Amino acid sequence: MDNPLIVPELPAGERFLLRPWRLDDVAVVKEAAEDPYISLITSVPSRYSDVEGAAFIRRQWSRAVERVGYSFAIADVGADRAVGQIGLWPGPHGRASVGYWVAGSARGRGVAHAALRAVSSWGLERLGIPRLELHVEPWNASSWKAAERAGFVREGLLRSWQDIGGERRDMYLYSKLVTDLA
């Protein structure tokens, strides 16, 4: 496809970096595949193999090639090791969705918060997207607290919003606007 999107490197605080996926990031894909929730709500394979891990990474590259969105590996700067994923998916009407996951071994270190701040600032300021949205299940307090710390505002509860694993689930709707940066 002509003119693929460019996935840049973005600093996410002092400890993390958002960057394009590399084939040597398969270790975090393997760890994520072992988390039954991550593989349920993302395209991380539920049964890991090196072939499936590499296919996941290639799918992340294809998102930019197909101009669907930006998929970043969240890397620990000190270890130069991927610890999660965050994506920004532009849509119609000046909105974009944000989605993320953090591997179990990296949780509790502020990874999601740092990644959300970096990708939202980039999307709002550099890409000029007026509104970012994300959805979080009400039970996932760690995730919605990270969103709130990153400046996202809870707008409400979307009842029976999404089918996850054959079950309709409620979701909190969060947004961050370009005017929230002022």
Number of strands: 8
| Overall body shape | globular
**Mean pLDDT across all amino acids:** 94
CATH-derived architecture: 3-Layer(aba) Sandwich
In the CATH scheme, the class would be Alpha Beta
Brief overview, please?
30% of the residues lie in helices and 34% in strands.
Mind explaining what this structure looks like?
One of its GO terms (cellular component) is cytoplasm. There is one protein chain. The chain is an alpha+beta fold and 182 residues long. It has one domain (10-181): 3-Layer(aba) Sandwich (Aminopeptidase). It is built from five helices and eight strands. A hairpin with a 4-residue loop joins strand 3 and strand 4 (81-90). Helix 1 (26-33) packs across helix 3. It starts with 9 loop residues before the first strand and ends in a 5-residue tail after the last strand.
Topology (SSEs and partners):
Blueprint: E1 10-12, E2 16-19, H1 26-33, H2 36-41, H3 50-65, E3 70-76, E4 81-90, E5 95-102, H4 111-126, E6 131-136, H5 141-149, E7 153-164, E8 167-177
Parallel strand pairs: 5-6
Antiparallel strand pairs: 1-2, 2-3, 3-4, 4-5, 6-8, 7-8
Write out key terms for the chains shown.
alpha+beta; eight-stranded mixed sheet; single chain
